[in-house]
Amino acid sequence: MIMGFIGSFQVFGQVMATTAGGPLNASNFLMVMIYKKAFRTLEMGYASSLAWVLFIIVLLLTAFIFRTSRSWVHYEGEVR
Question: Would the N or C end of the chain have less CB density within 10 A of its end CB?
């Protein structure tokens, strides 16, 4: 579940190949924003801060999944 969740944030190639952000930024995801800020407008500091925000989001949601997994995952041989 965690790997699928992290993979959902990595939708860069599909967006850039099809719409490059789309009409009126309709498909402008966070990874596309990081790319555009870093390599098109050369705002490396802003792109770096967006990458840190992405890291914090993934970290918090991963911690949430680990904490709540005890209620919906059964481990064989676990004594409660």
Answer: C
